[in-house]
Amino acid sequence: MTPNPAEFQLCVQCCKWAFAGGAAESIHELCGSVDWNRFTDIARFHRVQGLVWNSLWASEADVPAAAVEALSSEAKAIAAANLQIAAEARDLRAEFEQAGVALLFVKGLTVGALAYPKPFLKMGWDIDLLIDHAQLGEAVELLRARGYERTIPAPATDLNAWHARRKESVWARDGELYVELHSRLADNRQLIPAIAVHSPRQDVELAPGIVLPTLARDELFAYLCVHGASSAWFRLKWITDLAALLHQASDIDHLYERSQELGAHRAVGQALLLADRLYGTLGQSLLKDRLLQDRATQWLADAAYRQLVSGNLGSRDPTTALFGTWRIHLTQLLLKPGPGFKINELYRQTADAIA
User: Fold this and answer.
1) Partners of 204 in the β-ladder
2) What is the domain-level CATH number for residue 105?
């Protein structure tokens, strides 16, 4: 059994409070048994400091002064960064639309505004833009005109060829603002192939005067499941965002069925079982029983949970450790049934590794 220390449990309870509220007893009880330095490190790793601090403060938990100072200051910094990101996103929308370049904002603040009462406490570091690959050149010129420079891939790399193989490039301005420019949403083209910039959309208000377009609810749910599965859900903030959205949903069965039509496959079962393990998302539903009957889906959910709390209990990034991503790559092979997908995915991983 993978260890689940009090520090990680407290992070989970605080994240749940951030979207569901409820009684504070579970938070107060755990506060008496945690190592606060370790708890703060784990919250940082999972990028949930803002959510955690808001819950500790709102629930009137007994927190040592050093932890109060660290978490409250980081929560303020997260909110300030999000305000800057929101203003930049507003301007990007205006300029892209004026130039006739279609775009959607995925993940980030649009998800935060849909999921949480206080969206600016959800940590983010970049702006995720989805465009049409056919308009890549125009989008790049707009970013460059705003002072952005490409950081991934290297400047000498052919950008069209890069986007043909990978889903995004990364752009930075002044070391403060970052844009991930997506020309598709999944690493493997066999997953959610029809979800694109011209898919059904919804407008999300972040603040007065700042309204951004994102994917419509069904498409957004399928995408978030595939996105989380691409990293085996190793950060708590990703599954928390999904659980927060599902907390408002009365038709999870519909979301699941629609996600299968959209080509999200086992990524959705993995996400739902993981969210249920942490947040009780599925309760005693028939859908939970159905998902548990598929051994591959159950294994994927178990592997994601182990990834979430692996290493030194949630404070080591698997992408920086030697062979740290082996479980992630293994889970990716099982996201869609059938040998053809496994072969295609293995080829993709190999090509990425040697490129």
Assistant:
1) 212
2) 3.30.460.40
pLDDT of amino acid 311: 47
pLDDT score at 326: 82
Quick check: 109 and 212 in contact, CB under 8 A? yes
Cα–Cα distance list, 283 to 15, 178, 253 (Å): 18, 39, 12
- The whole-number pLDDT of residue 124 equals 85
Distance separating alpha carbons of residues 84 and 105, to the nearest angstrom: 15
DSSP state of 52: H
Phi-psi region of 317 (alpha: psi -120 to 50; beta: other; left: phi over 0): beta
Only one residue has tokens 């260890």, namely 3
Q: Which domain holds residue 279?
A: 6-354
pLDDT tens string 18-48: 999 888 999 999 999 999 999 999 999 999 9
Residue type, 279: Y
Bridge partners for 180 per DSSP: 128, 170
Residue 1 domain flag: no
What is the DSSP code string of 228-283?
HHTTTT-SHHHHHHHHHHHHT-S-HHHHHHHHHHTT-THHHHHHHHHHHHHH--ST
Per residue in 81-137, pLDDT tens? Answer: 999 999 999 999 999 999 999 999 999 999 999 999 999 999 988 999 999 999 999
Give the integer Cα–Cα distance in Å for 148 and 171: 6
Q: Is the pLDDT of residue 2 over 90?
A: no
For residue 177, list its beta bridge partners.
173
Provide the number of structural domains found in the chain: 1
pTM higher than 0.85? yes
Sign of torsion, CA 170 335 305 113? positive
Q: Which two tokens stand for residue 256?
A: 């699941």
pLDDT at 334: 95
Contact indicator for 341, 335 with CB cutoff of 8 Å = yes
